[in-house]
Amino acid sequence: MRYWLFKSEPFKWSWDHQKAKGDAGEEWDGIRNYQARNFMREMKIGDRAFFYHSNEGLEIVGVVEVSALSAPDSTTDDERWDCVHVRALADVPKPVTLKDVKATVSLSDMSLVTSMRLSVQPVKDKEWAIVCEMGGIDPVTLKPV
DNA sequence: GCCAACGTTGGC
DNA sequence: GCCAACGTTGGC
Q1: In A9-125, beta strands by DSSP E
Q2: From edge to edge, which strands make up the β-sheet containing A3-8?
Q3: How many Cα atoms are found within 13 Å in the side-chain-facing hemisphere of A7?
Q4: How many CA atoms lie within 13 A of A19 on its CB side?
Q5: What percent of chain A is helix, strand and coil (3-state, nearest 5)?
Q6: What class, spelled out in words, does domain A3-135 have in CATH?
Q7: Residue A87, SS3?
Q8: pTM for the full model?
Q9: Are the C-beta atoms of A120 and A39 separated by less than 8 Å?
Q10: CA–C1' distance A141–C7 (Å)?
Q11: Amino acid A125 CA to nucleotide B6 C1' distance, rounded Å
Q12: Which of A13, A24, A48, A58 is the most buried (most CB within 10 A)?
């Protein structure tokens, strides 16, 4: 299983919106960036990802999983763009802020820091474990610790 | 709201 | 294929 991170501006699509969709999940539409799209094409069902609030909040607030493979984005006729579906799995009990991430030496290579504008990005296994620990969530069971 | 970073577009 | 102009993202 691989790990990822999705950014969303909370006033457009927040963690609360995502949770309200429950197990049905929701299309991660609107991505118009090749790099981000290519990452989505690499995703497999069951891959896990952090849900990050950009612009406002600036913190990792939840964990989602990929519930459908990348397929044409329903919000455009442009066939270049496709996207996965994701569903909420768990809250991050202690949201991990961008500030926290920047202040953590072992996370200094995270795309969140190095590729500021990339809205869908890979997360390394080690980074996943560290962020989970900081967030007060078990990296495997996703239960609060 | 500003602006730096950076991706995309389009003229040549 | 270069690069200037432009648009968007996202932290501050």
Answers
A1: 26-27, 48-53, 59-72, 82-97, 120-123
A2: A26-27, A82-97, A59-72, A48-53, A3-8, A120-123
A3: 23
A4: 11
A5: 30, 35, 35
A6: alpha beta
A7: strand
A8: 0.94
A9: yes
A10: 42
A11: 27
A12: A48
Q: Which two tokens stand for residue A27?
A: 């299309």
* Domain residue extents for chain A: 3-135
Specify whether the backbone of A94 is left (phi greater than 0), alpha (psi in -120 to 50) or beta: beta
Closest nucleotide (CA of A34 to C1')?
Answer: B7
Could you tell me if A84 and A28 are in contact, meaning their C-beta atoms sit under 8 angstroms apart? Answer: yes
Tokens of A60: 């990792």
pLDDT category of residue A88 using cuts at 50, 70 and 90: very high
**Å from A118 (CA) to C11 (C1')?**
13
Decide: CB of A76 under 7 A of nucleic strand B: no
Answer yes or no: is A85 CB < 7 A from strand C: no
- pLDDT tens-digit profile of A42-78? 999 999 999 999 999 999 999 999 999 999 999 888 8
Question: Could you tell me the two tokens for A51?
Answer: 């849900």
